[in-house]
Design brief:
322 residues, mainly alpha, Serine Threonine Protein Phosphatase 5, Tetratricopeptide repeat, 0% strand
Length: 322
């Protein structure tokens, strides 16, 4: 992917092709996102928005087109959340949904709903918002035969069902849709959906099934060099092993991996989640000062989003540890 991206960039410079230049930035952003280089991905997508001129770059209204701006906006919503800016992420999500209305093309609207809409809402743990996006995605897919996006909508609907107490049916829908997606040869975002499935197994008290899902996701990481969700995989493995009764040392090793990966990637929201998990483990061991010393600086880094569930949980834990 990096070689092809560089070839596109060189060709755009040689030919002075503005459309190809924007496409090269898009390819660079997607590649950086997949390997977990979130700062680089943010830069590439923001470059698209800076260069984009609707009079030159907005395509004509046909059944399916590629628009550089509509590819940048929804991914920026996810990236900004990962980097630790949940309010800015919400702003990009709103902008993406508004621009999708302007273009009014089913495939592009579904794309925005999946990533900039439901993708961000799930990370924010906003079940009601995910439900709304999932219903809209499935309705669009049914109207326009968008099977690829329909499977994402069904996974999201299953997750919502599980969050709302319909656990077995929700898990079954998630498992089936994830398997169908994989059978299509889809890799993009598959690991996130497997993270969601593993976390849902954890909620249901099925640690062994959750660890089997983590193993499947870890295989995809190795096969596709896809490190976007690697910190979350380590953290969830630690939570599942803890639920299974593994030794504190084994659990701590997973959380420490999650923390190190998140720090290497500048992924502050993943770092916060890993710090919460590790601080809770140390609290259970009676190591209150160590737990607070770990979590306080991570929480203190944030400057926005204090009403989000992750930051509320971190604050409550810090209050308890003090």
């Amino acid at each position: 992917m990096r070689q092809l991206t560089e070839e596109a960039r060189r060709t755009s410079e040689r030919t002075a092709d503005a459309a190809l230049r924007l496409a090269a930035h898009r390819l660079s952003g997607l590649t950086a996102l997949q390997v977990g280089a979130f700062v680089e991905a943010r830069s590439e997508f923001e470059t698209i928005l800076r260069l984009y001129d609707p009079s030159q770059h907005r395509p004509p209204p046909v059944h399916y087109v590629h628009d550089p701006k509509i590819s940048a906006l929804p991914y920026l919503a996810v990236i900004l959340w990962i980097l630790g800016y949940p309010e800015q992420a919400r702003a990009w999500s709103v902008a993406a949904l508004q621009y999708a209305e302007v273009l009014n093309q089913a495939n592009l609207t579904a794309h925005v709903r999946v990533y900039g809409g439901a993708g961000l809402a799930e990370l924010l743990r906003d079940t009601a918002a995910v439900r709304g996006h999932a219903d809209a995605i499935i309705e669009l897919a049914d109207q326009h035969s968008l099977h690829y996006f329909r499977l994402s909508g069904l996974i999201l609907r299953g997750w919502v069902m599980a969050q709302e107490g319909v656990g077995e049916a929700g898990l079954a829908l998630m498992r089936q849709s994830a398997a169908e997606r994989l059978a299509l040869g889809v890799g993009w975002y598959q690991i996130r959906y497997l993270c969601m499935l593993a976390a849902t197994h954890l909620q249901a008290g099925a640690a062994e099934e959750g660890l089997a899902v983590i193993a499947q996701a870890t295989d995809l990481v190795a096969r596709n060099n896809d490190h976007m969700w690697e910190a979350e995989l380590h953290r969830l493995e630690g939570e599942l092993r803890s639920a299974q009764g593994a030794s504190p040392a084994d659990v701590e090793f997973c959380f420490a991996q999650a923390l190190a990966t998140a720090r290497d990637q500048s992924a502050k929201s993943f770092e916060l989640r890993a710090a919460i998990s590790l601080a809770r483990l140390r609290r259970a061991q009676g190591k209150y000062p160590e737990a607070r010393a770990l979590l306080a600086p991570v929480y203190g880094w944030f400057s926005e989003g204090f009403e989000t569930r992750d930051l509320k949980e971190a604050k409550a834990l810090l209050d308890e540890l003090s």
